[in-house]
UniProtKB/TrEMBL annotation:
Annotated organism of origin: Lynx canadensis (Canada lynx)
Full protein name: Olfactory receptor
Keyword field: Cell membrane, G-protein coupled receptor, Membrane, Olfaction, Receptor, Sensory transduction, Transducer, Transmembrane, Transmembrane helix
PROSITE patterns: G_PROTEIN_RECEP_F1_1, G_PROTEIN_RECEP_F1_2
Function: Putative odorant or sperm cell receptor.
Regions crossing the membrane: 32-53, 100-122, 142-170, 199-228, 240-263, 275-294
Length: 324
Protein backbone atom coordinates (compact mmCIF):
# COMPACT_ATOMS: atom_id res chain seq x y z
CA UNK A 1 0.00 0.00 0.00
CA UNK A 2 2.97 2.28 -0.57
CA UNK A 3 3.21 4.75 -3.42
CA UNK A 4 6.10 6.91 -4.64
CA UNK A 5 5.90 10.67 -4.53
CA UNK A 6 8.96 12.28 -6.03
CA UNK A 7 12.00 10.78 -4.35
CA UNK A 8 10.06 9.77 -1.23
CA UNK A 9 7.83 6.85 -0.46
CA UNK A 10 4.44 7.67 1.06
CA UNK A 11 1.60 5.44 2.16
CA UNK A 12 -1.84 5.16 0.60
CA UNK A 13 -3.21 3.30 3.62
CA UNK A 14 -2.47 2.16 7.14
CA UNK A 15 -2.40 -1.05 9.15
CA UNK A 16 -4.40 -0.96 12.37
CA UNK A 17 -2.81 -3.35 14.85
CA UNK A 18 -5.87 -3.27 17.11
CA UNK A 19 -5.86 -3.94 20.83
CA UNK A 20 -3.95 -7.22 20.68
CA UNK A 21 -1.79 -9.07 18.17
CA UNK A 22 -2.40 -12.48 19.77
CA UNK A 23 -4.71 -14.64 17.68
CA UNK A 24 -6.32 -16.41 20.63
CA UNK A 25 -7.51 -13.06 22.01
CA UNK A 26 -9.17 -11.93 18.80
CA UNK A 27 -12.37 -13.95 19.32
CA UNK A 28 -12.68 -12.69 22.89
CA UNK A 29 -12.23 -9.09 21.74
CA UNK A 30 -14.74 -9.58 18.92
CA UNK A 31 -17.45 -10.90 21.24
CA UNK A 32 -16.68 -8.32 23.93
CA UNK A 33 -16.73 -5.27 21.66
CA UNK A 34 -19.68 -6.52 19.63
CA UNK A 35 -21.63 -6.86 22.87
CA UNK A 36 -20.60 -3.40 24.06
CA UNK A 37 -21.45 -1.90 20.67
CA UNK A 38 -24.92 -3.45 20.60
CA UNK A 39 -25.62 -2.40 24.21
CA UNK A 40 -24.55 1.16 23.39
CA UNK A 41 -26.61 1.46 20.22
CA UNK A 42 -29.71 -0.19 21.67
CA UNK A 43 -29.48 1.62 25.01
CA UNK A 44 -28.98 5.09 23.57
CA UNK A 45 -31.46 4.37 20.77
CA UNK A 46 -34.13 3.47 23.33
CA UNK A 47 -33.43 6.72 25.18
CA UNK A 48 -33.93 8.75 21.99
CA UNK A 49 -37.09 6.83 21.09
CA UNK A 50 -38.57 6.98 24.59
CA UNK A 51 -38.02 10.73 24.91
CA UNK A 52 -39.38 11.35 21.44
CA UNK A 53 -42.60 9.41 22.12
CA UNK A 54 -43.26 10.74 25.64
CA UNK A 55 -44.45 14.36 25.59
CA UNK A 56 -43.84 14.59 29.36
CA UNK A 57 -40.10 14.36 28.65
CA UNK A 58 -40.08 17.16 26.09
CA UNK A 59 -38.04 19.40 28.40
CA UNK A 60 -34.59 21.01 28.03
CA UNK A 61 -32.88 18.38 30.19
CA UNK A 62 -34.06 15.50 28.02
CA UNK A 63 -33.53 17.45 24.81
CA UNK A 64 -29.83 17.68 25.68
CA UNK A 65 -29.83 14.02 26.70
CA UNK A 66 -31.12 13.10 23.23
CA UNK A 67 -28.20 14.99 21.70
CA UNK A 68 -25.75 13.23 24.02
CA UNK A 69 -27.22 9.81 23.18
CA UNK A 70 -27.01 10.49 19.45
CA UNK A 71 -23.40 11.66 19.85
CA UNK A 72 -22.58 8.49 21.83
CA UNK A 73 -24.03 6.23 19.14
CA UNK A 74 -22.10 8.13 16.48
CA UNK A 75 -18.89 8.13 18.52
CA UNK A 76 -18.74 4.38 19.02
CA UNK A 77 -19.81 3.81 15.40
CA UNK A 78 -16.74 5.62 14.06
CA UNK A 79 -14.31 3.03 15.42
CA UNK A 80 -15.82 -0.23 16.67
CA UNK A 81 -17.52 -1.50 13.45
CA UNK A 82 -14.27 -1.18 11.50
CA UNK A 83 -12.36 -2.96 14.27
CA UNK A 84 -14.93 -5.78 14.32
CA UNK A 85 -14.76 -6.11 10.54
CA UNK A 86 -10.96 -6.30 10.64
CA UNK A 87 -11.07 -9.03 13.28
CA UNK A 88 -13.70 -11.01 11.37
CA UNK A 89 -11.95 -10.74 7.99
CA UNK A 90 -8.46 -11.08 9.53
CA UNK A 91 -7.30 -7.91 7.81
CA UNK A 92 -5.77 -4.81 9.35
CA UNK A 93 -5.77 -2.37 6.45
CA UNK A 94 -7.62 0.92 6.12
CA UNK A 95 -7.24 3.34 3.23
CA UNK A 96 -5.74 6.78 3.73
CA UNK A 97 -9.04 8.51 2.89
CA UNK A 98 -11.05 6.31 5.26
CA UNK A 99 -8.46 6.81 7.99
CA UNK A 100 -8.67 10.61 7.72
CA UNK A 101 -12.48 10.43 7.68
CA UNK A 102 -12.49 8.21 10.77
CA UNK A 103 -10.12 10.57 12.56
CA UNK A 104 -12.28 13.60 11.66
CA UNK A 105 -15.49 12.16 13.06
CA UNK A 106 -13.79 10.72 16.14
CA UNK A 107 -12.61 14.25 16.98
CA UNK A 108 -16.08 15.67 16.28
CA UNK A 109 -17.86 13.38 18.72
CA UNK A 110 -15.20 13.63 21.44
CA UNK A 111 -15.48 17.43 21.37
CA UNK A 112 -19.30 17.24 21.17
CA UNK A 113 -19.41 15.24 24.40
CA UNK A 114 -17.21 17.86 26.09
CA UNK A 115 -19.52 20.73 25.24
CA UNK A 116 -22.75 18.83 25.82
CA UNK A 117 -21.64 17.91 29.33
CA UNK A 118 -21.04 21.61 29.97
CA UNK A 119 -24.44 22.53 28.55
CA UNK A 120 -26.15 19.89 30.70
CA UNK A 121 -24.40 21.24 33.79
CA UNK A 122 -25.69 24.73 32.97
CA UNK A 123 -29.19 23.29 32.58
CA UNK A 124 -29.01 21.73 36.07
CA UNK A 125 -27.64 25.02 37.45
CA UNK A 126 -30.66 26.95 36.16
CA UNK A 127 -33.11 24.24 37.29
CA UNK A 128 -31.80 24.13 40.88
CA UNK A 129 -30.71 27.74 41.44
CA UNK A 130 -33.59 29.42 39.58
CA UNK A 131 -36.43 26.88 39.64
CA UNK A 132 -39.23 29.45 39.30
CA UNK A 133 -37.63 31.01 36.22
CA UNK A 134 -36.39 27.77 34.67
CA UNK A 135 -38.85 27.60 31.75
CA UNK A 136 -38.53 31.34 31.18
CA UNK A 137 -34.74 31.14 30.90
CA UNK A 138 -34.51 27.80 29.07
CA UNK A 139 -36.72 28.79 26.16
CA UNK A 140 -36.77 26.63 23.00
CA UNK A 141 -34.64 29.11 21.04
CA UNK A 142 -31.90 29.07 23.71
CA UNK A 143 -32.02 25.27 23.98
CA UNK A 144 -31.64 24.85 20.24
CA UNK A 145 -28.73 27.31 20.24
CA UNK A 146 -27.04 25.49 23.15
CA UNK A 147 -27.36 22.23 21.19
CA UNK A 148 -26.29 23.58 17.77
CA UNK A 149 -23.24 25.54 18.94
CA UNK A 150 -21.38 22.40 20.20
CA UNK A 151 -21.94 20.71 16.83
CA UNK A 152 -20.56 23.73 14.97
CA UNK A 153 -17.55 24.12 17.27
CA UNK A 154 -16.71 20.41 17.21
CA UNK A 155 -16.71 20.32 13.40
CA UNK A 156 -14.54 23.44 13.35
CA UNK A 157 -11.98 21.83 15.70
CA UNK A 158 -11.96 18.60 13.67
CA UNK A 159 -11.58 20.53 10.43
CA UNK A 160 -8.57 22.45 11.76
CA UNK A 161 -6.81 19.26 12.83
CA UNK A 162 -7.64 17.56 9.52
CA UNK A 163 -6.39 20.43 7.36
CA UNK A 164 -3.14 20.53 9.35
CA UNK A 165 -2.72 16.76 9.01
CA UNK A 166 -3.27 16.52 5.25
CA UNK A 167 0.09 18.06 4.21
CA UNK A 168 2.03 15.66 6.45
CA UNK A 169 3.95 12.81 4.87
CA UNK A 170 3.84 9.22 6.10
CA UNK A 171 6.92 7.56 4.76
CA UNK A 172 7.85 3.88 4.91
CA UNK A 173 6.08 3.24 8.20
CA UNK A 174 2.32 2.73 7.92
CA UNK A 175 1.57 0.70 11.05
CA UNK A 176 -0.70 2.30 13.67
CA UNK A 177 -0.54 0.62 17.10
CA UNK A 178 -4.20 1.45 17.67
CA UNK A 179 -7.69 0.09 16.91
CA UNK A 180 -8.78 3.19 14.97
CA UNK A 181 -7.21 6.20 13.27
CA UNK A 182 -6.62 8.53 16.17
CA UNK A 183 -4.92 11.90 15.77
CA UNK A 184 -2.11 11.45 18.30
CA UNK A 185 -0.81 8.11 16.89
CA UNK A 186 -1.00 9.53 13.35
CA UNK A 187 1.16 12.50 14.34
CA UNK A 188 3.65 10.18 16.00
CA UNK A 189 3.80 8.06 12.83
CA UNK A 190 4.41 10.95 10.43
CA UNK A 191 7.92 11.61 9.13
CA UNK A 192 7.16 15.32 8.69
CA UNK A 193 7.68 18.07 11.23
CA UNK A 194 4.63 17.87 13.50
CA UNK A 195 5.50 20.62 15.97
CA UNK A 196 2.73 22.89 14.69
CA UNK A 197 0.24 20.01 14.89
CA UNK A 198 1.35 19.18 18.41
CA UNK A 199 1.00 22.83 19.46
CA UNK A 200 -2.48 23.11 17.95
CA UNK A 201 -3.43 19.80 19.57
CA UNK A 202 -2.36 21.17 22.94
CA UNK A 203 -4.09 24.55 22.49
CA UNK A 204 -7.30 23.05 21.09
CA UNK A 205 -7.30 20.38 23.77
CA UNK A 206 -6.82 23.05 26.42
CA UNK A 207 -9.73 25.06 25.01
CA UNK A 208 -12.26 22.28 24.51
CA UNK A 209 -11.51 20.84 27.96
CA UNK A 210 -11.09 24.00 30.00
CA UNK A 211 -14.14 25.97 28.86
CA UNK A 212 -16.77 23.22 29.41
CA UNK A 213 -15.05 22.11 32.61
CA UNK A 214 -15.04 25.68 33.94
CA UNK A 215 -18.76 25.90 33.17
CA UNK A 216 -19.34 22.59 34.95
CA UNK A 217 -17.28 23.68 37.96
CA UNK A 218 -19.06 27.04 38.21
CA UNK A 219 -22.46 25.36 37.87
CA UNK A 220 -21.78 22.83 40.61
CA UNK A 221 -20.37 25.42 43.00
CA UNK A 222 -23.60 27.37 42.62
CA UNK A 223 -25.67 24.17 42.90
CA UNK A 224 -23.95 23.13 46.14
CA UNK A 225 -24.51 26.57 47.64
CA UNK A 226 -28.18 26.50 46.64
CA UNK A 227 -28.72 22.97 47.97
CA UNK A 228 -27.11 23.76 51.32
CA UNK A 229 -29.69 26.50 51.81
CA UNK A 230 -32.51 23.94 51.56
CA UNK A 231 -33.73 23.18 55.08
CA UNK A 232 -35.14 19.66 54.62
CA UNK A 233 -32.90 16.63 54.12
CA UNK A 234 -35.37 15.22 51.59
CA UNK A 235 -35.18 18.41 49.55
CA UNK A 236 -31.39 18.34 49.54
CA UNK A 237 -31.33 14.70 48.44
CA UNK A 238 -33.85 15.34 45.67
CA UNK A 239 -31.81 18.24 44.32
CA UNK A 240 -28.51 16.35 44.45
CA UNK A 241 -30.05 13.22 42.89
CA UNK A 242 -30.71 15.10 39.66
CA UNK A 243 -26.97 15.87 39.37
CA UNK A 244 -25.38 12.60 40.49
CA UNK A 245 -25.61 10.87 37.12
CA UNK A 246 -24.18 13.84 35.26
CA UNK A 247 -21.32 14.23 37.74
CA UNK A 248 -20.42 10.53 37.42
CA UNK A 249 -20.11 10.79 33.64
CA UNK A 250 -18.13 14.03 33.94
CA UNK A 251 -15.52 12.42 36.19
CA UNK A 252 -15.19 9.36 33.95
CA UNK A 253 -15.07 11.32 30.72
CA UNK A 254 -12.70 14.12 31.70
CA UNK A 255 -10.37 11.83 33.60
CA UNK A 256 -9.64 9.84 30.45
CA UNK A 257 -9.80 12.71 27.97
CA UNK A 258 -7.09 14.72 29.75
CA UNK A 259 -4.64 11.83 29.74
CA UNK A 260 -5.15 10.93 26.09
CA UNK A 261 -5.75 14.16 24.16
CA UNK A 262 -4.61 16.99 26.40
CA UNK A 263 -0.88 16.28 26.10
CA UNK A 264 1.28 15.82 22.98
CA UNK A 265 1.55 12.29 21.63
CA UNK A 266 5.22 11.92 22.64
CA UNK A 267 4.20 11.81 26.31
CA UNK A 268 1.89 8.83 25.93
CA UNK A 269 3.17 5.57 27.40
CA UNK A 270 2.91 2.46 25.27
CA UNK A 271 -0.67 1.24 25.31
CA UNK A 272 -1.88 4.09 27.50
CA UNK A 273 -3.57 5.90 24.64
CA UNK A 274 -5.45 2.74 23.60
CA UNK A 275 -6.76 2.15 27.11
CA UNK A 276 -7.90 5.74 27.39
CA UNK A 277 -9.48 5.65 23.93
CA UNK A 278 -11.44 2.52 24.83
CA UNK A 279 -12.72 4.22 27.98
CA UNK A 280 -14.12 7.34 26.36
CA UNK A 281 -15.07 5.97 22.91
CA UNK A 282 -16.59 2.66 24.05
CA UNK A 283 -17.10 2.39 27.81
CA UNK A 284 -18.48 5.89 28.49
CA UNK A 285 -21.07 5.80 25.65
CA UNK A 286 -22.12 2.34 26.87
CA UNK A 287 -22.47 3.49 30.48
CA UNK A 288 -24.43 6.67 29.76
CA UNK A 289 -27.82 4.96 29.20
CA UNK A 290 -27.49 3.15 32.54
CA UNK A 291 -26.19 6.16 34.44
CA UNK A 292 -28.73 8.62 33.09
CA UNK A 293 -31.76 6.37 32.82
CA UNK A 294 -31.88 3.58 35.38
CA UNK A 295 -31.69 6.05 38.28
CA UNK A 296 -34.26 8.39 36.73
CA UNK A 297 -37.90 7.64 37.52
CA UNK A 298 -39.27 9.62 34.57
CA UNK A 299 -36.91 7.91 32.16
CA UNK A 300 -37.69 4.46 33.52
CA UNK A 301 -41.40 5.19 33.19
CA UNK A 302 -40.95 6.28 29.58
CA UNK A 303 -38.95 3.15 28.78
CA UNK A 304 -41.66 0.96 30.34
CA UNK A 305 -44.29 2.64 28.18
CA UNK A 306 -42.10 2.24 25.12
CA UNK A 307 -41.64 -1.46 25.74
CA UNK A 308 -45.28 -2.01 26.69
CA UNK A 309 -47.78 -3.41 24.19
CA UNK A 310 -49.62 -0.12 23.82
CA UNK A 311 -46.61 1.66 22.29
CA UNK A 312 -44.14 -1.00 21.24
CA UNK A 313 -46.43 -3.42 19.37
CA UNK A 314 -47.82 -0.84 16.90
CA UNK A 315 -44.20 -0.20 15.89
CA UNK A 316 -43.79 -3.94 15.25
CA UNK A 317 -47.12 -5.27 13.88
CA UNK A 318 -45.70 -8.76 13.51
CA UNK A 319 -45.22 -8.91 17.28
CA UNK A 320 -48.98 -8.77 17.90
CA UNK A 321 -49.22 -12.35 16.66
CA UNK A 322 -46.87 -13.42 19.44
CA UNK A 323 -48.81 -11.76 22.24
CA UNK A 324 -51.31 -13.85 24.20
Amino acid sequence: INMHQGNRTTVSGFLLLGLSNQAEQQKVLFVLFLGMYLVTVVGNGLIILAIGLDSYLHTPMYFFLVNLSFADISSISTSVPKMLMNIQTKTQSISYENCITQMYFSIVFVVIDNFLLGVMAYDRFVAICYPLNYMTIMQPRLCVSLAVIPWVLSNAVALIHTLLLLPLLFCDSNTLPHFFCDLAPLLKLSCSDTRVNELVLFIAGLSVVTFPFALILFSYICIVRAVLRISSTEGKWKAFSTCGSHLTVVLLFYGTIVGVYFFPSTTHPDGGDKIGAVLFTVVTPMMNPFIYSLRNKDMKGALRKLLSRKIFLPLMPWASDLSP
